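User: quick one
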Amino acid sequence: MSLPASFAFSQASLQDYVDCPRRFQLRYVERLAWPTPVAEPMLEVEAHLARGLDFHRLVYQHALGLDPATIGESISDAKLAMWWEAYLSHPLELPERRFPEIGVSTSLGGHRLVAQFDLVAAAPGERLVIVDWKTNEGRRPRREWLAKRLQTRVYRYVLAQAGQRFNQGEPVDPSWVEMIYWFAAFPAQPERFGYDPAELEQDRGDLEALVGEIEAAVAQAGSGAAGLAQARGDATCRYCRYASYCEREAGAATADDLEGQADEGAPGAGFDLGLEQVAEVEF
Amino acid sequence: MESKEASQVITAPHSGGYSVFLEGPAGAGKTTAAVRRLEHLLHEGVPGDAILVLTPQRTLAEPYQRFLRSQDAPGGSEVTLATLGGLARRAIDLLWPLIAEDAGFRAAERPVFLTLETAQYHMDQVLAPFLEKRYFDSVAIRRNRLASQVIDNLNKAAVVGFPHQEIAARLSQAWTGDPGQPRVYEQVQECASAFRARCLENNLLDFSLQIETFVRHVLPTPEGQSFLFQRYHHLIADNVEEDVPVAHELVTRWLALAESATLVYDWDAGYRAFLGADPQSAYELRKSCRRVIWMERCLVASEELQDLGTRLAPRLRRSASLPAGRGRQALVYASFRFHPQMLDWVADQVSRLVTEEGTPPREVAIVAPYLSDALRFALALRLERYGISAVSHRPSRSLREEEGTRCLLTLTALAHPDWGIAPGPFDVTRMLVQAIDSLDVVRAQQLSRIVYRVRDGRPALTAFQEIAGEAQERITFLLGGRYDELLGWLEAYRQGGASSLDHFISRLFADVLSQAGFGFHRDLDAARVAANLVESFSKFRRAFPRDADQAQIGREYLRMVQQGVVAAQYIEDWQLDGDGVLLAPAYTFLMRNRAADYQFWLDAGSRGWWERPYQPLTHPYVLTRHWPEGKQWTDGDEYQVRQLTMDRLLLGLVRRCRKGIYLGISDLGEQGYEQRGPLLEVFQRMLRHAVQAGRGERDA
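Assistant: Done. Structure below.
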């Protein structure tokens, strides 16, 4: 078994592997369509996802130069209007040059690693800021938990490694890189992560090792049940659409489950109701 | 090592508006050169996000995608791969608050982008009152095809760039047959205009309206120009001959503004003419380019095959003979009386190529003018006997043709008796066979006969526990228990209140069908079908307001699938690279733009190689920019177009074949009718010439 020819690693696929190698195999290697509900109630989850995408669109429109008042007139959903108001009333202090919704890739261990940024704000030679708009509801994720997420590590690594686009074609000094998580439900409490050369080297080593481990595991794996190791069950399976395929009687999580565990470091907490992955692919 | 021409393309200047028009036959390495050009740009420091690769359809961007995902691609921002439709949709979506009012929509509500399916649905709704007034009475085609042809006219108007109000006038002016036909065109016009009004009223954007809104309302705005022209300074447009005139206009504007541009044009192509592709308009683009480069030598096809291609060319056809000597090896043919005999021969030959000659199965393509389910199944089965797997590409396959879909839709009807949709007893039997593991047809038939009833139009099932003991024993308690489990789930669902159809299927799949003892358990193909159905309905549902009646939408959807209107083309299906032998309709194979070592051409006698689809409500050649106003479409025009189309098809196939073509001929076609189509005539003529030439040589 091998990775598909056009496969590129992302923070989401790496996180999937870390959470459950079997999930990685089913989703990215076998590309198994398994149409089970991930969370209940499905309509509520779906509405939340749609609202998250809508918010990303509004911010993108703003970055393109559309008048905020004109954008505001296009909003009919009350919660979305609240997020939009929060966004306008809590502006982040960011460098002038803005690159909304931009993908950046670099090579890593014989593969490509892709990051899809919501926004990169650049002051060449001084500061490169990644902004990630988070529309989770419920409690705000803890800093310790965010720091461990592969998104935080992958995004900063990719920008430091391949962000010359934002630095007038010159290599990026890792210490210029910053990542900000901005929470629509907690607009006054963004979470900031700096970066430095030591962290870059640490991430490079860890990510290369992880990719190497995945490559070796996939090469040795059989298909389906004879495949990569499964997560231990319980919480991880509870947020996984392949639970019934793996014969794990997890049942779909509820939206409340997801929200309630958002700052507890549970495997499903990074799920962000799927928005991370939707955004990475489509937006 | 690359050719001089390829080097010129790759290293052309990338500033000052330098543009290259690269032309040549398929297989000459044009796309390879363009991919290398992309690599060159990136290595020269051009930011990836300043580069747009524009192709007429997503599959044609695969070589670029493969490169960008390879180790050879430098790190940096991502290159955009897009189609005209994709660009239009993205721009409209983002600039909606600015352009909606001017375009006739309500800006305060989000736009709803229609898929082919949802456009068909809305068109069907528009057609209903007209059909009651006996519109289209003289036209003998199914209702879903009526809808698709009216939509097709709107799309043609948009991509060719004429007002949709002119559809009837243009079609009528060219018509020469039945004097009643212009009246039909008027009816088409009325329905098209009514559909457009419905779309504007409900913020619906079908493909035609997406293109028109993009061209008329997005492009003129500074924001629209900024989004496109100031963002993408470097353009690579591949297969421009397969794109539409409006796309060519967009490219022309880009040529004036971009730092660099590379346009790639395939000779003798234009396979998407029925979708509005305009090779002539594409060729005009060369005039706007700084430099024209020719890559004239086909590097894919062997010399023998290129010779064959030349002999198939129309001007040579009358005196054509089969290639002599080594050239004969490029073409193998066999003639049979019956269709299954031909299929046996094909499987034998494929097996020989794979097992004796070591040809990888993926280097074999079996193409036919049409690929029916039966033909696909018959071929796959024969190959399977030799241990050879097959992958199939048939994008127009309707969802309802999948056994898994039928099963799920039958269960849907049974779970919603209020909808008054009663499946036939045979459908229930098939559903049981599919849904319950190890249940054979005989037992399923017996079970359905006992438990399934329709009362007052409402379908109903009774429990296994309630049937006679003797019947229970025959069916077995194990299988009966599974049936009861399924029934119990359906009853619990009914009592819990209806949900949307995609959610219903997801839950049914998760709770029952994918569990051990049921038919979808670990059946990846069935799961794929279920996922496609879920996705299809999910998209369908989104074309309605969020507070719309889910039951009503579900019922409408079921009706659409039963009528065969729903035929989602899923990109996943196109991306099946697999290692198997490819089974595909000939045009589908061409639009993958991939070569194979060996090709098998089936049904050489079929008229499908020559005929175009019956389209009484539209006309792909009249609704172009080149059809002179007032000129009539004659039999001569029809004949010429068919010949040209077949020539292009054959050349396209030959140029995508490396080593040899196998021609399968059967006197009787798949349906049992005699086959004597023009392709067969061409080859027969070539055979006769070969025989005569052989006699001549002996006499001498």
